């Protein structure tokens, strides 16, 4: 779907009772439609002025008294004429207002994300900022809010531009040399350092993808280990509330319990798993399979061992996590005070007394984030990661070509890199990609 001349309308607020509900209209007919609902507003309202107005039905009966806002094209969110009716937050009232707006044949309901899509298509915001709008609405941790806000203010756009502009210049230079080979003196040699430098910039951006995913989706951390090592007490302590069923009998935790916490602003989903071994019953056997699956999927596995576990046993438990990184702690250190105090032994924690729990939290964060407080990262989505991978790969091939191959090949690869990067900024996107992207927006965004 490309931009059309229809005027679109949708509720900008959630379809639930609230203090205020907003009906938003965008397109050429916005002002006329808005004034039919609020006839008291002057024919040429002052842009961005909040008029207190009566909203009326077709017979002129008053439905509500609210605020009327007019943004004149192109100085609006969408770049089109926009009118907002800010009414009292009654879902039924808002549906009446929506239905009235739709009586005009130039008006149709907005598709999911269509306001933001129009903002993009009208050049008000680039694609990274449009995506940041959806990220902000979906953000469920402080770090995710901050990362989306950074994207919204153009942080990623700026970094992409810093790569895209010199890449475009290089491409233009190479094409110029190809078209006028007489002036090609030394062009190959000159291209080598430029390609290498741009490749390094692309790789550096790519390196942030992992952190971006952590911020956006939150980290997943599982506690595992032998039965009765104090996992559930530790889980409860970490979660800060009595969630897991804690019992003196081994094997109480039959399946993974999960809880969402926020550490230093980073969203973390914690899992408390069933013991992997020594489980006699069938329920436990099922739990074991699920535990293995879970361990393969998480970002970090915390292996909780009882005091006195041998080195060999610890190593064999570590192997259970497969490729997932493991952080080993000695649980229930309250049971055997002073035991295993040697420097090589895993850090001691006790869910019961809280000893070592803060240190564990810090270590886990360091393992996940690699030091420093989780902060706003520019790069967030898998889509960005994939486009940047293709950018870096094309530049890698360009770098090889700049040494051994022809200028045509080199320029072709630089062109491919540029195209892949354009999928992030939005300078080269298909309608199909836009459809996919804006489908994850809600209606009215
Ligand atoms: N009531 C209300 N609140 C809202 C929005 C909205 O549309 N309505 N927003 C919507 O999602 C966000 C605010 N975003 C906005 C972004 C740009 C413009 C705007 O008018 N931009 C023009 C003018 C810029 C200027 O003059 O400084 C432009 O970009 O040209 C408005 C809102 C969040 N809060």
Automatic annotation (TrEMBL):
- What's the superkingdom here? Bacteria
Q: Principal localization?
A: cytoplasm
Domain G, chain residue ranges per copy: 220-329
- Which InterPro entries does this UniProt record tie to the protein? G_TrmE (IPR031168), GTP-bd (IPR006073), GTP-bd_TrmE_N (IPR018948), GTPase_MnmE (IPR004520), MnmE_dom2 (IPR027368), MnmE_helical (IPR025867), P-loop_NTPase (IPR027417), Small_GTP-bd (IPR005225)
- EC no. given is 3.6.-.-
Q: Name one Pfam family in it.
A: TrmE_N
Co-factor remark = Binds 1 potassium ion per subunit.
Q: Name one GO cellular component term.
A: cytosol
Annotated GTP-binding protein TrmE N-terminal domain ranges read 7-124
Concerning PANTHER family, the annotation shows: TRNA MODIFICATION GTPASE GTPBP3 (PTHR42714), TRNA MODIFICATION GTPASE GTPBP3, MITOCHONDRIAL (PTHR42714:SF2)
Protein name in UniProt? tRNA modification GTPase MnmE
Species source reads: Corallococcus interemptor
């Amino acid at each position: 779907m490309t931009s059309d001349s229809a005027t679109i309308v949708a509720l900008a607020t959630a379809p639930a009772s609230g203090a205020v509900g907003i009906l938003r209209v965008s397109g050429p007919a916005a002002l006329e439609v808005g004034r039919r609902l609020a006839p008291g507003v002057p024919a040429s309202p002052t842009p961005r002025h909040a008029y207190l107005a009566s909203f009326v039905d077709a017979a002129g009966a008053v439905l509500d008294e609210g605020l009327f806002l007019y943004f004149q094209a192109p100085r609006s969110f969408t770049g089109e004429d926009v009118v907002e009716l800010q009414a009292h937050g009654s879902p039924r009232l808002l549906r009446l207002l929506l239905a009235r707006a739709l009586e005009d044949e130039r008006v149709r309901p907005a598709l999911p994300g269509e306001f933001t899509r129009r903002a993009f298509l009208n050049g008000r915001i680039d694609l990274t900022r449009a995506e940041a709008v959806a990220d902000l609405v979906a953000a469920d941790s402080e770090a995710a809010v901050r990362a989306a806000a950074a994207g919204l203010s153009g942080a990623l756009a700026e970094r992409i531009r810093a790569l895209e502009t010199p890449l475009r210049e290089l491409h233009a230079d190479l094409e110029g040399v190809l078209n006028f080979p007489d002036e090609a003196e030394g062009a190959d040699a000159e291209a080598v350092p430029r390609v290498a430098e741009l490749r390094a910039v692309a790789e550096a951006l790519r390196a942030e993808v992992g952190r971006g995913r952590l911020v956006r989706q939150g980290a997943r951390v599982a506690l595992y280990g032998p039965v009765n090592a104090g996992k559930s007490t530790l889980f409860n302590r970490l979660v800060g509330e009595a969630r897991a069923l804690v019992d003196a009998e081994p094997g109480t935790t039959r399946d993974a319990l999960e809880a969402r916490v926020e550490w230093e602003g980073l969203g973390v989903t914690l899992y408390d798993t069933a013991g992997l071994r020594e489980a006699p019953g069938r329920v436990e056997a099922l739990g074991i399979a699920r535990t293995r699956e879970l361990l393969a999927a998480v970002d970090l596995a915390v292996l909780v061992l009882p005091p006195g576990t041998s080195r060999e046993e610890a190593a064999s438990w570590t192997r259970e996590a497969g490729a997932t990184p493991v952080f080993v702690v000695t649980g229930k250190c309250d049971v055997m005070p002073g035991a295993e105090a040697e420097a090589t032994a895993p850090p001691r924690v006790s869910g019961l007394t809280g000893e070592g729990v803060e240190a564990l939290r810090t270590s886990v964060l360091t393992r996940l984030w690699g030091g420093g407080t989780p902060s706003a990262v520019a790069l967030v989505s898998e889509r960005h990661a994939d486009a940047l991978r293709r950018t870096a790969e094309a530049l890698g091939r360009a770098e090889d070509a700049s040494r051994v191959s022809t200028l045509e090949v080199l320029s072709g690869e630089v062109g491919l890199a540029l195209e892949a990067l354009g999928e992030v900024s939005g300078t080269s996107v298909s309608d199909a990609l836009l459809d996919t992207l804006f489908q994850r927006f809600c209606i009215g965004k």
